[in-house]
Specification:
alpha/beta
Length: 206
């Protein structure tokens, strides 16, 4: 019998990425941000006007950040993942650039050894070529293509896209960018990995 697939985001679900990013931004680009201010649409976060010049600057800053920082602290997920792995197939689906694949795989194997197979880590590639539309792209179609039954993500747009594709989304965390989002029927809000396990335990008992 085929096991259900749980797809899982990386940044701010498995790793503390936003706090690392805003600290780097404040130090190198003179901003005064907190993790609460983080937005995956960097142009909006930095109050930049849309256009080619902004896209070029976003790429430059992204290159600078990703070349020097990819050593985020991991969130307390290992025990939960070990438990889920017994009944579900676990895959990773990230918005990270494809160019970050090598460093990302190294980080995953270091922080979560034995949990994720290398060929089960997928890069959506939405930031590979930066445009004013990049921030609007979702993982929905990719999740459907991969056969996800459940998807865990901190970004509301990816959870809504999962729901539209018949996948049960778990909106993860209590962050500035998702805290006030109204969760519709069919979507589940979980504040941490303890609540993720609680949800799937209850599901198994039904």
């Amino acid at each position: 019998m085929k096991r259900p697939i749980i797809s899982i985001d990386i940044d701010d679900v498995l790793s503390e990425s936003a706090s690392s990013f805003v600290a780097f931004s404040n130090k190198h680009w003179g901003t005064n941000l907190t993790a609460e201010d983080y937005n995956d649409d960097w142009a909006k976060m930095w109050n930049m006007e849309p256009g080619e010049a902004t896209n070029a600057e976003l790429k430059t800053r992204g290159d600078e950040y990703h070349k020097t920082v990819l050593n985020h602290s991991s969130l307390n997920a290992h025990q939960a993942l070990e438990k889920l792995k017994k009944d579900f197939d676990l895959i990773l689906v990230t918005s990270r650039r494809t160019s970050m694949k090598g460093d990302t795989l190294t980080w995953i194997q270091r922080e979560f050894p034995g949990i994720f197979l290398e060929d089960k880590i997928f890069f959506a590639g939405m930031w590979d070529v930066i445009s004013e539309h990049s921030a609007k792209v979702t993982k929905g179609e990719l999740l459907k293509e991969l056969g996800s039954s459940y998807h865990i993500d901190d970004q509301p747009k990816h959870c809504f896209a999962a729901l539209e594709n018949g996948i049960t989304p778990l909106l993860f965390g209590e962050y500035g960018w998702n805290r006030e989002v109204e969760v519709p029927k069919g979507m589940v809000r979980v504040k941490d990995w303890f609540e993720v396990v609680e949800y799937f335990d209850a599901l198994q008992e039904k």
